[in-house]
């Protein structure tokens, strides 16, 4: 926070700034630019007045005092204005020449905020009104008494906007007439009692009524613009050389990636082992669905319209490229450019976010993605399959199963139907999407959303109608009744809504048939990267309590993105039917769940066998020969290089690193000792060196098989659940799978649920789609 010593706009106005026209325009422009930034964050200042506009040592504007946040305070302050009688400067002015608190604030409050008789939604235009009062004071002579100020500003606040006679353009002489004409036009524009007719900050900056920026700034902007427009020019190359020649200070070198080294002294191997375990489980699930691992290029060309959180880089030619914000865009570009029409892929890669602090390493997150590319434009089965993949992944991790994840689902067609129904113009749809999307990512409050929507010059009725729809979040079976206003009407809105609801219903039905256990919830306000998706959108979330508030913890998100593929297709390329649906999961959240306390499944070990020696001789040759045999047998083994340690210390090292077996050489002995270190007991066996590899291979395999019994049992229960959903009248061949460990023939069963099916010891191929709509199991 910067320190501005006793200098505010109030001091400048009282000192007669109106005589310095250039300074007036400079300060006015800087206030507008500051307000624009505030409004773009979805905020309203609500208490703009000269004493809250600070000036730093370089005479630049700093907007402060964001404390006023309710209309009740403002309304009470407005009422005090009607009761106050100001008689002299001494009893109505503070040390800086401004009115005391309550009256001073009330003079700058917009009419819609001071009207206590009717309840209205206000937006950023209330700050524009306050700006109009301040601009008038900047352009007019100082008002010496409190009574004169109240009288002139009260007249200014009338619907007719009564300017003083010596300021009004009609009474001025030619010398000042043009200047005051422009200033009066701006004042009347800003003080219009109809908020819809007041300009936004962006409209004001782009207006011809504002003089251009100072010549020095304009010249610099022109030089930069012309240099960037011609990459072959000498000026462009000098500019890039200057950018890439900046010195690296020791402070920058130390702080740049300091967040990555916070665990100095507490480094642990456990997160790395858990990472390998999670990767193995995820790959097993993805491969079960026939997916292959595919990594798309790291960098992509980047335009100026990307989100501020995207990490953008510049190379020595001046080209702007971006690190991946998600795993979807680069894959869409890969699929479009290669013309891929049939593929299931998965990947686990890092994605990046711009650091919240300037000059620090971007934040790194690990995400995994599962995508399905098909040439069938009508099928919704891939959309359902990606949901099944998420459900299966949750089932693989006991720590995730207890979090009660559910499915939030929406459709771009339904979202568009709501905007059309509310009467929002087509050209504003993308801006509304951006506001709703930002509100979810940045967790804006309802008032902030309404404020940003009103800034698009939408009426209060439109904003209220839209808000009533986006608040709908109900179990899918109950949600359709809340949308009858649209579906029962006629026109494009009804058609779009019916299409979206029909496709979501089909996807949910398909997913449940394939074993997805996620409870579906229709979330009309779910707007997730709408510029990428062109169909169903979904999130897998859980409700979590933090600081007495219930928040959504997003575990996975995705949808159908056919339109994104079309955007990346090469111009003039032959048309290819490419339908793509995918979902991204938070790898980091799965990893955190595995590391959260004691997990039911133990983490994998990096090493199973440690080869060491005790005695006076290091016996390095014998140990290297042994390690060679263990590696050849496929065992994870390593040498213990410190031959001076006691055996007890070596055993403690094994337990600390979860090494289960110890091979001990001792000088003058022909055999070796093999120790198996369990948690409860230690087993020893003496063997010839040539027998050690086979012995350990058997022991480790037996332990692994015992650990896999629970996974086998889980898989068996899943197959039994699948079998219970199959009716015998739809099965034409389930012949005696009992001989392979199954349950027997189905011929003796009546229509209804099949008996439980155990996992067979041979592969099964299930064929579906026969003429009689039946299943066949091929053994």
TrEMBL record:
Catalysed reactions, as listed in the record: L-seryl-[protein] + ATP = O-phospho-L-seryl-[protein] + ADP + H(+); L-threonyl-[protein] + ATP = O-phospho-L-threonyl-[protein] + ADP + H(+)
Domain of life: Eukaryota
PROSITE patterns recorded: PROTEIN_KINASE_DOM (PS50011), PROTEIN_KINASE_ST (PS00108)
Enzyme Commission number(s) of this protein: 2.7.11.1
Gene Ontology cellular component terms for the protein in this record: cytosol; mitochondrion
Molecular function GO labels: ATP binding; histidine-tRNA ligase activity; protein serine/threonine kinase activity; RNA binding
Domain Protein kinase: 1-210
A Pfam family matched in the record: tRNA-synt_His
Keywords (A to Z) from UniProt: ATP-binding, Kinase, Nucleotide-binding, Serine/threonine-protein kinase, Transferase
GO biological process, one term: mitochondrial translation
Protein name according to UniProt: non-specific serine/threonine protein kinase
Origin species: Capitella teleta (Polychaete worm)
